[in-house]
Amino acid sequence: MRVREDFPMLESRMNGKHLVYLDNAATTQKPAAVIDRMTQFMRHEYATIHRGVYTFSQLSTRECDLVRERCRRFVNAERASEIIFTRGATEAINLVAASFGRKFLKKGDEIIISEMEHHSNLVPWQALCEEKGLLLKVAPINDKGELLLDEFEKLLAARTYFVAITHVSNALGTINPIREIIKMSHHAGAAVLVDGAQAAPHLKVDVRDLDCDFYCFSGHKIYGPTGVGVLYGKARHLEAMDPYQYGGDMIESVDFKKTTFAKPPAKFEAGTPAIVEIIGLGAAFDYLQKIGWEAIHAHENELLDYATQALSQIPGLAIIGTAQEKASLISFVLDGIHPHDIGTVLDQEGIAIRAGHHCTQPVMKHFKVPATARASFAFYNTREEVDALVKAIHKVLEIFR
Amino acid sequence: MTQEVKLDELYQEVILDHNRRPRNFGKLDDATHYAHGHNPLCGDDYHLYLKIDENGKIQKITFEGSGCAISKSSASMMTTFLEGKNGDEAEKLGSHFIGFMTKDTLSKEDREAVGRLKLFEGVRHFPVRVKCATLAWQALLNAVTGK
């Protein structure tokens, strides 16, 4: 794929070497299309949305509405009003925990999450459980890092009213059988939130096909800017839920005696939103559409296979997370060498990877490792970059031999 | 400075040796002082045990846990340095070492004050790793000052 020239940052050098950027699961680099659109908007089009009677404000409002519509298409939602702009996936999950969970879950009710959740899809639910006297149940994974679907099904009980589960694991790469999970959960009467932060960059998301109640992701992981994310929610939920934050833009009318709230999505978007970032996110949607999911899948899967092969040959290297269905991400450990030392040596070779617990301490505990090194690939990565990674890991082995 | 030199300065042979064969590694059952050193960012996690006699002398010091080469070798070398010293000396050396790792610029005196531990100076080129080098010493200060 000829896409590297679209990403100015990929031309950078780090520690005197060509940058090999393999930390895409943390955040992706930005194409010029996104950077330029945001700059253009700030230079020549910027004004607040909703409030102004003047032309530029109306144009800003229209641009943001168009991004909401593009986002609707991106996840194939039925209506644009089912798309809420948040600060990111984390805020989206917190919003659902606060506005749906706090309102509809009662003492003694149960929430199911999985063992592979990112802390951001674990801690909000844990806090809600403590606050409301709910029970948090955890669906286990096997040693390949796959969710045990049978065990999950067994956990579904009469009082299970909510399931929060990741589509793709950020620490293991596992793609969960989310459609079956949703079906089972609905059968048991539970609503489902899918954390799509790691899925949206790699898979075509179709919320109507999945039939999920909520779906969320972050803009900065799909080649858009930081500070903006998306929550999809079924219209009937969004209408029934309480607001998340209170302030301007989310009201219908305000009086000292009584305030009535706007309809979704405005009801959940108090205050001036991240206008510039929303515009940038729109450019990212356009860019991804131009590249196309087929091309993205083909390239990323090929890279994943190539890298898995190459890394497996390295003596003392163990891949953590070997699920049948995986996104293009490889967590690994080297015998007797701490991931942080791997990260430091690779950094000196110009290679950016992640070393740590990836905000998934329960996953680390399952695999009995304190941390892992993680190389995560985007469609702009190349075989040559995988080769550079392998070469650098051999250097690590040399130093620590 | 080239990248190779930087890495060589970081991972010096002595440091690698202490990482491979940490000294005084294990739990101390009759410890009088204990501290836990944990860096949540990278997961480095150590338990520090000291047996200090009535005269304030460190009779025995051990550690256990897991972490990167820098944190482990630093903890290991710390234990070899402190056995037989008294608590006040340990505290003083700890403060010197943490200063040595974190000060913007080092004087000749700063280097002399830490003796052989100055081989950790290479870590200063890697700001995110400084905490690895100071983790065990920070735990030591907590243990001897009871904080």
Note down, in words, how this protein is organized.
The complex is a heterodimer of chains A (401) and B (147). Chain A has 13 helices and 17 strands. With 401 residues, chain A is α/β, with parallel strands linked by helices. Chain B has one domain: Sufe protein. Chain: A (Alpha-Beta Complex), CATH 3.90.1010. Helix content of chain B is 47%, strand content 17%. A 3-stranded antiparallel beta sheet of chain B has the order 1-2-3, with helices on one face. In chain B, strand 1 and strand 2 form a beta hairpin. The longest helix of chain B has 16 residues, at 87-102. Chains A and B meet through helix 11 of A and helix 1, helix 2 and helix 3 of B.
**Sheet having the most strands of chain B:** 3 strands, antiparallel
Helix content of chain B: 40-55%
The N- and C-terminal alpha carbons of chain A lie at a distance of 38 Å
The CATH superfamily of the largest domain in chain A is known as: Type I PLP-dependent aspartate aminotransferase-like (Major domain)
Shape label of chain B? globular
Proper CATH architecture of chain B: Alpha-Beta Complex
CATH class descriptor name of chain B: Alpha Beta
Unreliable parts of chain B: none
Question: Which series of helices and strands of chain A comes N to C?
Answer: EEEHHEHEHEHEHEHEEHEEHHEEHEEHEH
